[in-house]
Amino acid sequence: MTRVFFDTNIIAYTYDVFEPEKYKIASSLLLRDRGTISTQVLSELTNLLFKKFHYPWSDINSVYENLTRNLDVRIVMPSTIRKAIALADRYKFQYYDSLILAAAIESSSSVLYSEDFQDSQEIEGVRIINPFA
Predict the structure, then answer these.
(1) Is 88 within a domain?
(2) pLDDT tens digits, residue range 77-96?
(3) 116/100 Cα distance (integer angstroms)
(4) What is the pLDDT of residues 96-126, one digit of tens each?
(5) Are strands 36-38 and 72-74 parallel, antiparallel or unpaired?
(6) Residue 50: inside a domain, yes or no?
(7) 3-state DSSP percent of the chain in helix, strand and coil, to 5
(8) Total number of domains in the chain
(9) Range of the domain at 55
(10) 3-class DSSP state for residue 110?
């Protein structure tokens, strides 16, 4: 079975009614795969829902409860940060993108769904797929 990891942007599109095609694709991925996210994804999504989509805190809490109930959550640990620094240095990625990739690697995911990397790139056993490409 393929283990998948979702970047924040993929999860965010499941709450973005202004991007109907991306909403449809992202929602179908989440329904199809019981994937993994990190605590970084939860934090970034919380910020996005509040600042961009103007969700009230009670609704954000409901989103949080739904995600943590239906997805595996990987805690960002010091080892994840060390790995992210090494990835950022080696591949010249932005740090927070590297942190997502590091969490995907540490969770033994074979696929990372994200629109922040080159589509079909493979790094340390993780194939990056932009589902919107």
Answers:
(1) no
(2) 999 999 999 999 999 999 99
(3) 10
(4) 999 999 999 999 999 999 999 999 999 999 9
(5) parallel
(6) yes
(7) 55, 15, 30
(8) 1
(9) 4-75+109-129
(10) coil
At 34, the pLDDT band (50, 70, 90 cuts) reads confident
pLDDT score recorded for residue 2: 83
Euclidean distance between CA atoms 106 and 87, whole angstroms: 13
Cα 68 → chain centroid: 13
Domain membership of residue 96 (yes or no) is no
Q: Does residue 9 have a pLDDT over 80?
A: yes
| Cα separations in angstroms, 95 against 25, 46, 82, 108 | 26, 19, 11, 20
Residue 88 vs residues 50, 83, 85, 100, 129: alpha-carbon distances, Å = 28, 9, 5, 11, 19
92 lies in a domain?
no
CA distance 92 to 90: 6
Question: What is the three-class DSSP state of 36?
Answer: strand
What is the residue whose two structure tokens read 């009670």?
58
Tell me the pLDDT band of 1, cut-offs 50, 70 and 90. low
Mean of pLDDT values over 33-45: 95
Please state, in angstroms and rounded to a whole number, the distance separating the CA atoms of residues 2 and 111. Answer: 7
